[in-house]
Amino acid sequence: MTILHISDTHNSHKELGTLPEADVVVHSGDFTREGTETEAYDFMDWFCDLPYKHKIFIAGNHDTCMFGAESIEGLPNDVHYLCDTGIEIEGVKFWGVPMFMNDLVNGKLSEYYSQIPDDTDILITHQPPKGMCDLADYGNGLEHKGSVLLLERIEQLHIRYHLFGHEHDAYEVHKQGNVVFSNASVMDSKYNLINKPRLFEINI
What we know:
Helix content: 10-25%
Structural class: alpha/beta
Number of domains: 1
Largest sheet: 6 strands, mixed
Low-confidence stretches: none
Mean pLDDT: 95
Radius of gyration: 15 Å
CATH class: Alpha Beta
CATH superfamily: Metallo-dependent phosphatases
CATH architecture: 4-Layer Sandwich
Strand content: 25-35%
Distance between the termini: 9 Å
Strand order of the largest sheet: 5-6-7-10-12-11
Number of strands: 13
Shape: globular
Order of helices and strands: EEHEEEEHHEEEHEEEE
């Protein structure tokens, strides 16, 4: 199975141009910039028209209009919005956890991390785990900004791939043990579109 991973397009999805062939495309959040419904609908119209067998997306912290929407009516059968939910495609089990600031503040996000199923093959979050493709500089020098709780949960699982974004300047791939960690933020911290979506050939 070939997977195309994209993250943090922030309304610039149409500027990506022609994308490479793949079986599944995954967008790991922040498809809007201001979090409006108009932005979200524009993204979904584009995403639904992409020529892939399956299209999976989750929400990021910018996508505030998605808060409380556990599902989206009217999506084609080949488009899957994951909100603390999963889907199995050709024997591969995907699970998606969005990132909303309300959930982060009230502690719900850590609760959702604890609910990730043990048999997940590919985990999709917006937030990175601590120490994995999460370096960012918010004025105090480079620091690891990922989630400790998410990393602890991953260490309990047997996932093979973890796809995320959020930290724009940490676009990279890192493998630790049997897990491939991918931050596919296509924009830098100044919202310049500088990185390419990432292609994986996976064997699970």
